[in-house]
Amino acid sequence: MLDILLSVNAWALDSRYLNIYQPIILKRLAEGKSFQDFFATEKDDHQSSSAPYQSTFYQSAYNSGSQAGNPVTVQVIKIKGTMLKEVGACQAGTSTARVVAALEEAFKNPDVGAIVLESDTPGGAVDGTEVLGNTVKNAPKPVVTFVNGLTASAGYWVASQSQHIVMSSKTTSYVGSIGTLVAHLDESGWLAKEGYKVTYITADASVHKVLGNSSEPLSAEALDMFKARLNSINDTFISTVKDGRGKKLSGKEDVFTAKVYNGNQAIQHGLADSIGTIKDAINIAASLARKNVSSSTQSPKSNAYMSFPKLSALFNRGQEVSADAEVTEIQAANAENALIEKDNLISSLQTQLAAKDKEITDLKATHQATVDQLNTQIAQKDTAITQKEGEIARLEQWHNEQQVVNSGTQDLVNTITQTATQLSPNAQKAQEHLNETKNIKAKKGIA
Questions:
Q1: What is the DSSP string of 146-174?
Q2: Would you list the domain boundaries of the chain?
Q3: pLDDT tens-place string over residues 89-121
Q4: What is the Cα–Cα distance from 117 to 159, expressed in whole angstroms?
Q5: 109-152 residue pLDDT tens
Q6: Measured torsion, CA atoms of residues 124, 129, 132, 138, in degrees rounded to the nearest 10
Q7: What pTM was computed for the model?
Q8: Pick from 293, 284, 280: which is nearest to 140 by CA?
Q9: CATH 3.90.226.10 is held by the domain 2-285
Protein backbone atom coordinates (compact mmCIF):
# COMPACT_ATOMS: atom_id res chain seq x y z
CA MET A 1 0.00 0.00 0.00
CA LEU A 2 2.85 2.39 0.85
CA ASP A 3 4.55 1.92 -2.49
CA ILE A 4 1.21 2.56 -4.23
CA LEU A 5 0.59 5.80 -2.31
CA LEU A 6 4.08 7.12 -3.03
CA SER A 7 4.44 5.90 -6.59
CA VAL A 8 1.27 7.50 -7.96
CA ASN A 9 1.99 10.93 -9.43
CA ALA A 10 -1.33 12.43 -8.38
CA TRP A 11 -4.49 11.36 -6.61
CA ALA A 12 -8.08 12.42 -7.09
CA LEU A 13 -8.95 10.95 -3.70
CA ASP A 14 -11.08 12.14 -0.81
CA SER A 15 -8.61 13.23 1.88
CA ARG A 16 -10.58 11.53 4.68
CA TYR A 17 -9.87 8.16 3.08
CA LEU A 18 -6.15 8.98 2.97
CA ASN A 19 -6.26 10.08 6.63
CA ILE A 20 -7.72 6.70 7.63
CA TYR A 21 -4.81 4.70 6.23
CA GLN A 22 -1.93 7.10 6.77
CA PRO A 23 -1.45 6.31 10.53
CA ILE A 24 -1.60 2.57 9.78
CA ILE A 25 0.97 2.91 7.03
CA LEU A 26 3.33 4.95 9.21
CA LYS A 27 2.96 2.48 12.07
CA ARG A 28 3.77 -0.46 9.80
CA LEU A 29 6.73 1.40 8.40
CA ALA A 30 8.03 2.06 11.92
CA GLU A 31 7.62 -1.64 12.74
CA GLY A 32 9.36 -2.67 9.55
CA LYS A 33 6.41 -4.79 8.46
CA SER A 34 5.41 -5.68 4.92
CA PHE A 35 2.42 -4.14 3.20
CA GLN A 36 1.80 -7.12 0.95
CA ASP A 37 -0.95 -8.51 3.17
CA PHE A 38 -2.44 -5.09 3.96
CA PHE A 39 -5.59 -5.78 2.00
CA ALA A 40 -5.23 -9.55 1.68
CA THR A 41 -8.55 -10.12 3.41
CA GLU A 42 -10.33 -8.12 0.72
CA LYS A 43 -11.70 -10.37 -1.99
CA ASP A 44 -11.56 -9.70 -5.68
CA ASP A 45 -15.27 -8.97 -5.72
CA HIS A 46 -14.38 -5.27 -5.74
CA GLN A 47 -13.65 -5.64 -9.45
CA SER A 48 -16.26 -4.49 -11.93
CA SER A 49 -19.07 -6.81 -12.75
CA SER A 50 -19.71 -7.65 -16.39
CA ALA A 51 -22.94 -9.60 -15.91
CA PRO A 52 -25.90 -7.94 -17.66
CA TYR A 53 -28.88 -6.99 -15.56
CA GLN A 54 -32.34 -7.51 -17.05
CA SER A 55 -34.54 -4.55 -16.18
CA THR A 56 -38.17 -5.47 -15.79
CA PHE A 57 -39.45 -2.52 -13.74
CA TYR A 58 -40.20 0.81 -15.38
CA GLN A 59 -41.52 4.08 -14.11
CA SER A 60 -44.41 5.46 -16.16
CA ALA A 61 -42.77 8.88 -16.20
CA TYR A 62 -40.10 7.50 -18.50
CA ASN A 63 -42.45 5.65 -20.88
CA SER A 64 -43.40 7.01 -24.28
CA GLY A 65 -47.00 8.23 -24.03
CA SER A 66 -49.07 5.79 -22.01
CA GLN A 67 -47.62 2.61 -23.50
CA ALA A 68 -45.18 0.52 -21.48
CA GLY A 69 -41.68 0.34 -23.02
CA ASN A 70 -40.12 -2.85 -24.29
CA PRO A 71 -37.78 -4.62 -21.85
CA VAL A 72 -34.20 -3.39 -22.11
CA THR A 73 -31.13 -5.21 -20.85
CA VAL A 74 -29.14 -2.88 -18.64
CA GLN A 75 -25.62 -3.90 -17.68
CA VAL A 76 -24.54 -2.95 -14.17
CA ILE A 77 -20.82 -2.32 -13.71
CA LYS A 78 -19.52 -1.74 -10.19
CA ILE A 79 -16.89 0.79 -9.19
CA LYS A 80 -16.06 0.06 -5.57
CA GLY A 81 -13.19 1.06 -3.33
CA THR A 82 -10.05 2.91 -4.39
CA MET A 83 -9.72 3.44 -8.14
CA LEU A 84 -6.41 2.40 -9.68
CA LYS A 85 -5.43 1.92 -13.29
CA GLU A 86 -4.55 -1.70 -12.51
CA VAL A 87 -5.33 -3.65 -9.33
CA GLY A 88 -3.14 -6.52 -8.17
CA ALA A 89 -4.28 -9.77 -6.62
CA CYS A 90 -3.70 -8.56 -3.04
CA GLN A 91 -5.08 -5.09 -3.55
CA ALA A 92 -8.60 -3.88 -2.94
CA GLY A 93 -10.36 -1.47 -5.20
CA THR A 94 -11.37 -1.15 -8.83
CA SER A 95 -9.20 -1.21 -11.93
CA THR A 96 -10.24 1.66 -14.20
CA ALA A 97 -8.70 -0.23 -17.14
CA ARG A 98 -10.98 -3.18 -16.43
CA VAL A 99 -14.01 -0.88 -16.23
CA VAL A 100 -13.08 0.61 -19.60
CA ALA A 101 -12.83 -2.93 -21.03
CA ALA A 102 -16.22 -3.86 -19.53
CA LEU A 103 -17.79 -0.73 -21.00
CA GLU A 104 -16.35 -1.41 -24.45
CA GLU A 105 -17.73 -4.96 -24.33
CA ALA A 106 -21.14 -3.60 -23.35
CA PHE A 107 -21.04 -1.11 -26.24
CA LYS A 108 -20.38 -3.96 -28.68
CA ASN A 109 -22.98 -6.28 -27.17
CA PRO A 110 -26.21 -5.92 -29.21
CA ASP A 111 -28.25 -7.33 -26.32
CA VAL A 112 -27.20 -4.53 -23.96
CA GLY A 113 -29.20 -1.34 -24.36
CA ALA A 114 -27.77 0.77 -21.53
CA ILE A 115 -25.26 0.73 -18.69
CA VAL A 116 -25.49 1.66 -15.00
CA LEU A 117 -22.29 2.40 -13.10
CA GLU A 118 -22.93 1.42 -9.47
CA SER A 119 -20.38 3.59 -7.70
CA ASP A 120 -19.13 3.56 -4.11
CA THR A 121 -15.61 4.98 -4.12
CA PRO A 122 -13.56 7.69 -2.39
CA GLY A 123 -11.72 8.22 -5.69
CA GLY A 124 -8.22 7.14 -6.57
CA ALA A 125 -5.30 7.62 -8.93
CA VAL A 126 -5.64 10.20 -11.67
CA ASP A 127 -3.83 7.89 -14.10
CA GLY A 128 -6.58 5.96 -15.86
CA THR A 129 -9.42 8.13 -14.56
CA GLU A 130 -9.41 10.54 -17.50
CA VAL A 131 -9.56 7.64 -19.98
CA LEU A 132 -12.50 6.10 -18.12
CA GLY A 133 -14.27 9.46 -17.97
CA ASN A 134 -13.85 9.98 -21.70
CA THR A 135 -15.14 6.46 -22.36
CA VAL A 136 -18.32 7.27 -20.44
CA LYS A 137 -18.63 10.68 -22.10
CA ASN A 138 -18.38 9.25 -25.63
CA ALA A 139 -20.50 6.16 -24.94
CA PRO A 140 -22.77 5.19 -27.85
CA LYS A 141 -25.31 3.89 -25.34
CA PRO A 142 -26.88 5.63 -22.33
CA VAL A 143 -24.78 5.51 -19.16
CA VAL A 144 -26.35 6.30 -15.77
CA THR A 145 -24.43 6.50 -12.48
CA PHE A 146 -25.96 5.18 -9.26
CA VAL A 147 -24.18 6.61 -6.20
CA ASN A 148 -24.42 3.80 -3.68
CA GLY A 149 -22.86 5.62 -0.73
CA LEU A 150 -19.87 7.78 -1.71
CA THR A 151 -18.66 8.84 -5.14
CA ALA A 152 -15.88 11.32 -4.55
CA SER A 153 -13.01 12.84 -6.47
CA ALA A 154 -11.93 10.48 -9.30
CA GLY A 155 -15.22 8.64 -8.87
CA TYR A 156 -17.13 11.86 -9.49
CA TRP A 157 -14.80 12.71 -12.40
CA VAL A 158 -16.25 9.63 -14.10
CA ALA A 159 -19.83 10.02 -12.82
CA SER A 160 -20.06 13.60 -14.10
CA GLN A 161 -19.70 12.29 -17.64
CA SER A 162 -22.80 10.08 -17.44
CA GLN A 163 -26.22 11.24 -18.62
CA HIS A 164 -27.92 10.99 -15.23
CA ILE A 165 -26.70 10.66 -11.63
CA VAL A 166 -28.96 8.96 -9.07
CA MET A 167 -28.15 9.38 -5.35
CA SER A 168 -29.11 6.51 -3.05
CA SER A 169 -30.04 8.83 -0.16
CA LYS A 170 -30.88 12.44 0.54
CA THR A 171 -28.61 12.55 3.58
CA THR A 172 -26.25 9.54 3.62
CA SER A 173 -24.98 9.39 0.06
CA TYR A 174 -22.28 11.82 -1.02
CA VAL A 175 -20.57 13.22 -4.09
CA GLY A 176 -17.94 15.88 -4.64
CA SER A 177 -14.41 16.24 -3.31
CA ILE A 178 -13.52 17.71 -6.69
CA GLY A 179 -9.80 18.20 -6.14
CA THR A 180 -6.37 16.59 -6.35
CA LEU A 181 -3.58 15.74 -3.96
CA VAL A 182 -0.25 13.94 -3.76
CA ALA A 183 1.36 12.31 -0.72
CA HIS A 184 5.00 12.81 0.24
CA LEU A 185 6.45 10.73 3.06
CA ASP A 186 9.69 12.02 4.56
CA GLU A 187 11.56 8.87 5.58
CA SER A 188 14.86 10.62 6.35
CA GLY A 189 14.36 10.60 10.15
CA TRP A 190 13.48 6.92 10.24
CA LEU A 191 16.38 6.00 7.93
CA ALA A 192 18.82 7.91 10.11
CA LYS A 193 17.46 6.24 13.23
CA GLU A 194 17.96 2.83 11.63
CA GLY A 195 21.48 3.75 10.53
CA TYR A 196 20.77 4.10 6.82
CA LYS A 197 21.91 6.89 4.52
CA VAL A 198 20.58 6.95 0.97
CA THR A 199 22.67 8.56 -1.77
CA TYR A 200 21.17 9.12 -5.22
CA ILE A 201 23.63 9.31 -8.08
CA THR A 202 22.25 10.84 -11.27
CA ALA A 203 23.59 11.98 -14.60
CA ASP A 204 24.82 15.55 -14.72
CA ALA A 205 21.87 16.68 -16.81
CA SER A 206 19.29 14.79 -14.69
CA VAL A 207 18.87 17.54 -12.11
CA HIS A 208 15.20 16.74 -11.52
CA LYS A 209 15.58 12.95 -11.47
CA VAL A 210 15.15 12.52 -7.69
CA LEU A 211 13.33 15.75 -6.92
CA GLY A 212 10.77 15.09 -4.19
CA ASN A 213 12.10 11.65 -3.18
CA SER A 214 11.07 10.25 0.19
CA SER A 215 14.61 9.84 1.56
CA GLU A 216 14.93 13.59 2.00
CA PRO A 217 12.74 16.34 3.46
CA LEU A 218 10.49 17.98 0.86
CA SER A 219 12.28 20.97 -0.65
CA ALA A 220 10.63 24.20 -1.80
CA GLU A 221 11.53 23.35 -5.40
CA ALA A 222 9.89 19.93 -5.09
CA LEU A 223 6.80 21.48 -3.49
CA ASP A 224 6.50 23.93 -6.39
CA MET A 225 6.84 21.05 -8.85
CA PHE A 226 4.09 19.05 -7.16
CA LYS A 227 1.84 22.13 -6.94
CA ALA A 228 2.26 22.92 -10.62
CA ARG A 229 1.48 19.33 -11.58
CA LEU A 230 -1.58 19.19 -9.32
CA ASN A 231 -2.91 22.56 -10.51
CA SER A 232 -2.72 21.41 -14.12
CA ILE A 233 -4.55 18.15 -13.36
CA ASN A 234 -7.07 20.00 -11.19
CA ASP A 235 -7.87 22.43 -14.01
CA THR A 236 -8.59 19.46 -16.28
CA PHE A 237 -10.73 17.86 -13.56
CA ILE A 238 -12.83 21.01 -13.10
CA SER A 239 -13.28 21.66 -16.82
CA THR A 240 -14.32 18.02 -17.31
CA VAL A 241 -17.00 18.28 -14.61
CA LYS A 242 -18.24 21.59 -16.02
CA ASP A 243 -18.43 20.07 -19.50
CA GLY A 244 -20.25 16.97 -18.21
CA ARG A 245 -22.77 18.71 -15.98
CA GLY A 246 -23.10 21.82 -18.11
CA LYS A 247 -26.00 24.12 -17.24
CA LYS A 248 -27.15 21.73 -14.52
CA LEU A 249 -24.57 23.33 -12.21
CA SER A 250 -26.50 25.93 -10.24
CA GLY A 251 -23.62 28.32 -9.62
CA LYS A 252 -25.01 29.00 -6.13
CA GLU A 253 -21.75 27.88 -4.57
CA ASP A 254 -18.20 27.16 -5.67
CA VAL A 255 -18.34 23.35 -5.75
CA PHE A 256 -14.70 23.04 -6.86
CA THR A 257 -13.05 23.42 -3.45
CA ALA A 258 -13.03 19.65 -2.75
CA LYS A 259 -16.10 19.93 -0.50
CA VAL A 260 -18.35 16.86 -0.22
CA TYR A 261 -22.15 17.18 -0.62
CA ASN A 262 -24.98 14.87 0.46
CA GLY A 263 -27.82 13.90 -1.87
CA ASN A 264 -30.04 16.91 -1.20
CA GLN A 265 -27.14 19.35 -1.47
CA ALA A 266 -25.81 17.66 -4.61
CA ILE A 267 -29.14 18.06 -6.39
CA GLN A 268 -29.45 21.64 -5.16
CA HIS A 269 -26.05 22.51 -6.66
CA GLY A 270 -26.53 20.48 -9.84
CA LEU A 271 -23.98 17.79 -9.02
CA ALA A 272 -26.67 15.06 -9.19
CA ASP A 273 -30.09 14.63 -10.77
CA SER A 274 -32.34 12.53 -8.53
CA ILE A 275 -32.73 10.38 -5.41
CA GLY A 276 -33.60 6.73 -5.92
CA THR A 277 -32.65 3.07 -5.83
CA ILE A 278 -30.57 0.91 -8.13
CA LYS A 279 -33.82 -0.12 -9.82
CA ASP A 280 -34.63 3.54 -10.45
CA ALA A 281 -31.21 4.00 -12.05
CA ILE A 282 -31.76 0.90 -14.20
CA ASN A 283 -35.18 2.12 -15.28
CA ILE A 284 -33.83 5.54 -16.20
CA ALA A 285 -31.06 3.93 -18.26
CA ALA A 286 -33.59 1.62 -19.94
CA SER A 287 -35.85 4.57 -20.70
CA LEU A 288 -33.00 6.46 -22.35
CA ALA A 289 -32.20 3.36 -24.38
CA ARG A 290 -35.82 2.98 -25.54
CA LYS A 291 -35.89 6.59 -26.62
CA ASN A 292 -32.66 6.08 -28.55
CA VAL A 293 -34.29 3.21 -30.45
CA SER A 294 -37.46 5.26 -30.99
CA SER A 295 -35.55 8.22 -32.43
CA SER A 296 -33.56 6.01 -34.82
CA THR A 297 -36.81 4.85 -36.48
CA GLN A 298 -38.19 8.35 -37.03
CA SER A 299 -37.37 11.05 -39.55
CA PRO A 300 -34.97 13.51 -37.92
CA LYS A 301 -37.11 16.44 -39.09
CA SER A 302 -40.58 15.23 -38.23
CA ASN A 303 -42.12 14.38 -34.88
CA ALA A 304 -38.62 14.41 -33.42
CA TYR A 305 -39.96 14.98 -29.95
CA MET A 306 -43.12 12.87 -30.00
CA SER A 307 -41.48 10.33 -27.66
CA PHE A 308 -41.03 13.19 -25.20
CA PRO A 309 -44.53 14.60 -24.64
CA LYS A 310 -43.46 17.36 -22.27
CA LEU A 311 -40.56 18.46 -24.43
CA SER A 312 -42.81 18.22 -27.52
CA ALA A 313 -45.22 20.70 -25.94
CA LEU A 314 -42.45 23.28 -25.98
CA PHE A 315 -42.20 22.87 -29.77
CA ASN A 316 -45.81 23.51 -30.79
CA ARG A 317 -47.04 20.10 -29.70
CA GLY A 318 -44.72 18.00 -31.84
CA GLN A 319 -44.90 19.92 -35.10
CA GLU A 320 -42.01 19.54 -37.50
CA VAL A 321 -38.73 20.89 -36.14
CA SER A 322 -36.09 22.32 -38.42
CA ALA A 323 -32.70 20.63 -38.68
CA ASP A 324 -30.88 23.47 -36.95
CA ALA A 325 -33.12 22.99 -33.91
CA GLU A 326 -32.45 19.28 -33.56
CA VAL A 327 -30.85 17.89 -30.42
CA THR A 328 -29.47 14.47 -29.67
CA GLU A 329 -31.72 11.82 -28.18
CA ILE A 330 -29.77 11.85 -24.93
CA GLN A 331 -30.09 15.63 -24.67
CA ALA A 332 -33.81 15.34 -25.38
CA ALA A 333 -34.14 12.62 -22.76
CA ASN A 334 -32.29 14.76 -20.23
CA ALA A 335 -34.55 17.72 -21.08
CA GLU A 336 -37.64 15.50 -20.79
CA ASN A 337 -36.47 14.20 -17.42
CA ALA A 338 -35.78 17.76 -16.27
CA LEU A 339 -39.32 18.78 -17.26
CA ILE A 340 -40.73 15.75 -15.46
CA GLU A 341 -38.72 16.64 -12.37
CA LYS A 342 -40.03 20.22 -12.58
CA ASP A 343 -43.61 18.90 -12.86
CA ASN A 344 -42.95 16.66 -9.88
CA LEU A 345 -41.54 19.64 -8.01
CA ILE A 346 -44.60 21.75 -8.90
CA SER A 347 -46.89 18.92 -7.81
CA SER A 348 -44.93 18.58 -4.59
CA LEU A 349 -45.12 22.33 -3.99
CA GLN A 350 -48.86 22.30 -4.68
CA THR A 351 -49.27 19.47 -2.18
CA GLN A 352 -47.22 21.42 0.33
CA LEU A 353 -49.29 24.54 -0.37
CA ALA A 354 -52.53 22.61 0.17
CA ALA A 355 -51.09 21.24 3.40
CA LYS A 356 -50.13 24.77 4.47
CA ASP A 357 -53.64 26.03 3.62
CA LYS A 358 -55.13 23.25 5.74
CA GLU A 359 -52.66 24.06 8.49
CA ILE A 360 -53.70 27.75 8.34
CA THR A 361 -57.41 26.77 8.40
CA ASP A 362 -56.77 24.49 11.37
CA LEU A 363 -54.82 27.25 13.10
CA LYS A 364 -57.66 29.70 12.49
CA ALA A 365 -60.16 27.21 13.94
CA THR A 366 -57.89 26.60 16.90
CA HIS A 367 -57.43 30.35 17.33
CA GLN A 368 -61.20 30.96 17.26
CA ALA A 369 -61.74 28.17 19.76
CA THR A 370 -59.09 29.75 21.99
CA VAL A 371 -60.73 33.19 21.63
CA ASP A 372 -64.16 31.73 22.49
CA GLN A 373 -62.69 29.98 25.50
CA LEU A 374 -61.02 33.20 26.65
CA ASN A 375 -64.29 35.13 26.21
CA THR A 376 -66.10 32.52 28.32
CA GLN A 377 -63.42 32.81 31.00
CA ILE A 378 -63.67 36.62 30.89
CA ALA A 379 -67.48 36.42 31.31
CA GLN A 380 -67.02 34.08 34.25
CA LYS A 381 -64.49 36.46 35.76
CA ASP A 382 -66.89 39.39 35.27
CA THR A 383 -69.65 37.43 37.07
CA ALA A 384 -67.25 36.62 39.89
CA ILE A 385 -66.24 40.29 40.14
CA THR A 386 -69.93 41.35 40.28
CA GLN A 387 -70.51 38.85 43.08
CA LYS A 388 -67.47 40.12 44.96
CA GLU A 389 -68.63 43.71 44.54
CA GLY A 390 -72.04 42.70 46.04
CA GLU A 391 -70.31 41.09 49.00
CA ILE A 392 -68.18 44.20 49.48
CA ALA A 393 -71.31 46.38 49.44
CA ARG A 394 -72.98 44.19 52.10
CA LEU A 395 -69.85 44.32 54.24
CA GLU A 396 -69.72 48.08 53.98
CA GLN A 397 -73.41 48.26 55.03
CA TRP A 398 -72.75 46.01 58.01
CA HIS A 399 -69.68 48.09 58.87
CA ASN A 400 -71.80 51.26 58.86
CA GLU A 401 -74.46 49.61 61.03
CA GLN A 402 -71.79 48.49 63.46
CA GLN A 403 -70.47 52.00 63.61
CA VAL A 404 -74.00 53.20 64.59
CA VAL A 405 -74.27 50.51 67.26
CA ASN A 406 -70.80 51.31 68.51
CA SER A 407 -71.74 54.98 68.65
CA GLY A 408 -74.82 54.25 70.86
CA THR A 409 -72.78 51.97 73.09
CA GLN A 410 -70.15 54.64 73.49
CA ASP A 411 -72.83 57.16 74.50
CA LEU A 412 -74.11 54.72 77.17
CA VAL A 413 -70.59 54.16 78.46
CA ASN A 414 -70.07 57.88 78.63
CA THR A 415 -73.35 58.32 80.60
CA ILE A 416 -72.43 55.56 83.04
CA THR A 417 -68.98 56.99 83.43
CA GLN A 418 -70.41 60.43 84.06
CA THR A 419 -72.93 59.05 86.60
CA ALA A 420 -70.20 57.09 88.32
CA THR A 421 -68.10 60.19 88.46
CA GLN A 422 -70.96 62.11 90.02
CA LEU A 423 -71.66 59.39 92.59
CA SER A 424 -68.08 58.92 93.39
CA PRO A 425 -67.78 61.63 96.18
CA ASN A 426 -70.89 60.37 98.04
CA ALA A 427 -69.61 56.81 97.87
CA GLN A 428 -66.33 57.90 99.37
CA LYS A 429 -68.11 59.65 102.23
CA ALA A 430 -70.32 56.65 102.82
CA GLN A 431 -67.27 54.44 102.97
CA GLU A 432 -65.59 56.77 105.43
CA HIS A 433 -68.78 56.77 107.60
CA LEU A 434 -68.93 52.99 107.45
CA ASN A 435 -65.30 52.72 108.46
CA GLU A 436 -65.90 55.14 111.37
CA THR A 437 -68.93 53.11 112.56
CA LYS A 438 -66.82 49.93 112.52
CA ASN A 439 -64.16 51.59 114.62
CA ILE A 440 -66.72 52.73 117.31
CA LYS A 441 -68.20 49.26 117.55
CA ALA A 442 -64.78 47.79 117.92
CA LYS A 443 -63.97 50.08 120.83
CA LYS A 444 -67.25 49.22 122.60
CA GLY A 445 -66.86 45.54 121.95
CA ILE A 446 -69.91 45.42 119.85
CA ALA A 447 -69.75 42.80 117.17
A1: EEEEEEETHHHHHHTTSSEEEES-SSS-E
A2: 2-285, 299-364
A3: 666 789 999 999 999 999 999 989 999 999 999
A4: 8
A5: 998 999 999 999 999 999 999 999 999 999 999 999 999 999 99
A6: 130
A7: 0.57
A8: 293
A9: yes
